[in-house]
Known about the structure:
Elements: H1 2-41, H2 47-62, E1 64-73, E2 78-85, E3 88-95, H3 99-107, E4 111-113, H4 125-130, E5 137-143, E6 149-158, H5 165-228, H6 232-259
Antiparallel strand pairs: 1-2, 1-6, 2-3, 4-5, 5-6
Helix pairs in contact: 1-2, 1-5, 2-5, 5-6
Amino acid sequence: MMSLRLRTSNQSFLLQGEHYFQETLHRLDKMHKLIEASKIVNSSLDLQKLLSNILQTATGTTNADRGTLYLIDEIKKELWSKVLQGSSTVEIRLPVGKGISGFVAATGETINIPDAYADSRFNPEVDKATGYRTKTILCMPMKNKDGKIIGVFQLLNKANGTFSKEDEEFIDALSIHASIAIENAQLAQQMVQSERLSAVGQMASTIIHDIKNPMGTIRVYAQVMKKKSADEETKKMADEMIAQIDRFVKMTQEILDFTRGVSSMNIQEC
């Protein structure tokens, strides 16, 4: 009996050890996938390419057939995404709060639907228009490090079954890395735009400075024409030339002030 109990206890210990070993391997595999995913999503500062990389990582890791990654437009209160139709890229927009993706964007809840056509929240009109058959849906918010929702993952039709809790955990972990990469890409775009504006300002400053000199010469000649001419019509034309030149010079000075960062108030009665 003692020998039997020892063998049973030993067998139980071995089985438990094997279980822990397999669980550890599984966790290491998940961590490896997340590390590889973070490398992919941080490989580009081009926003469109970055969004494509994030979506491919999400669909590939969860074995989804297809999906959409939406970003939130805070000003218009809309979800937007760019999808490939044929050889061209088309932007699609959805109101926040409408549909499954809009509901997730508004509430931050995760929606995991094992049977799309059995769920009242699913709109089958898109399937009818495209000919695609939606079976399973995983829709999750993409949150930044502060917990703010900046986008939505919508994944469709997991191969060989339904989306699992493990898929939800992976997308939740991926969203933090994805949000940081997206914010970095947006910041890089803003810096590039700022540099372009600065270069345009410097070029405009040079051009306008060169224009002001001939305008000054034309104004002097107009004043001379007015002084030497006895014809009233000619004097009126000279006055109009002087007024338009002054208006043009004032406009160019405003552009110069803008490029130099100078601001001023121009208060008028109206």
